[in-house]
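Hello,

Our lab assistant flagged a job as stuck in the queue for most of the afternoon. It eventually completed. Since we weren't sure the result was trustworthy after the delay, we are filing this so someone can double-check. Below is the sequence as submitted and the structure that was eventually returned. Let us know if re-running is recommended.
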Amino acid sequence: MKTQFEQMMDGLDDVEAFLAGEQEGFKAHVPQDVDVKAIRNRLGMTQARFSDTFGFSLDAIKHWEGGRRTPEAPARTLLTVIDRDPAAVLTALNPAASAAAGSSKPVTVRGRADRKRPASRGVTGRRAYRAGRKGSR
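-- returned structure --
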């Protein structure tokens, strides 16, 4: 079994070989756990602002923070980049900033459309429904 030092040296040897062109390929490390709430709190954002700014759905943010769901690998990757360099992500997602930088194709940030909820029957509607059922018995 290798010591931690030997494992680190093997990793450095791999990096050196890759940079020298002797080794091809690169494997990205995507973390298994991402603390969405901690990232959002460090940025001082509400759930709604975080979702609008970075293109996540508000429901996804709530489910991730509540522990009911975990982000898929692409979302964990983006969340990791947001955690380490939020300015880079904001620059990449801001169409005006990318146009000013000379980009020929601005990036579109997908916004969440507000949906109207269906109207509730309310107390009066329920009473009328129950009254109709009593007469049919």
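-- support follow-up --
The delay was a queue issue, not a problem with the job. The result is valid. The longest helix spans residues 4-19. DSSP finds eight helices and no strands in the chain.
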